[in-house]
Amino acid sequence: MRVRHIMTTSVIYTHPTVKLPTLSEIFISNVIHHLPVVDAENNLVGILSDRDVDKALSPFLGSDQEREQDIATTELTAEHVMTPSPITVEQETRIDTASILLLEHNFSCLPVTNEDGVLEGILSWKDILNFYVYAD
To answer: Smallest Cα–Cα separation from 87: which of 56, 122, 63?
Structure first.
């Protein structure tokens, strides 16, 4: 079985210049945990997790303890906190190969790109677990 059979193809993605508060809203409103970061040609340049964004934004925003440096975190963009040039798989990658990549690198998802680096989908650990549990 190949990645193309179980990957998510309707991927929500972002661009490098999007600011962290907007990214936080994207994660919350779409109930997702990963955002591929693409350039103007839809080439994958990085990956973000909701944890990356939460860690970078000051926890004091909006509180009575808020300081200038806390407000400054709202000016950070995706390219400041993303993992650049992530490991990817292609649609024809075997599911067991993708599973090994996730385990060996302690990833929770893998972007799926074509040979030119254009984003085509995303494969999460949930997609793989779903496959192994419910496959006939």
So the answer is: 122
| C-alpha span between 79 and 102 (Å, rounded) | 23
Nearest-angstrom CA–CA distance, 8 and 126? 11
- pLDDT score, position 68: 73
Cβ atoms < 10 Å from Cβ of 109:
23
Name the pTM for this structure.
0.88
CATH number of 3-134: 3.10.580.10
Residue-wise pLDDT tens digits, 26-57: 999 999 999 999 999 999 999 999 999 988 87
Query: Who contacts 41 (Cβ-Cβ below 8 Å, separation ≥6)?
Result: 118
Cβ atoms < 10 Å from Cβ of 9: 10
45 CB contacts (<8 Å, ≥6 apart)? 16, 37, 38, 39, 79, 82, 84, 85
Domain boundaries, the chain: 3-134
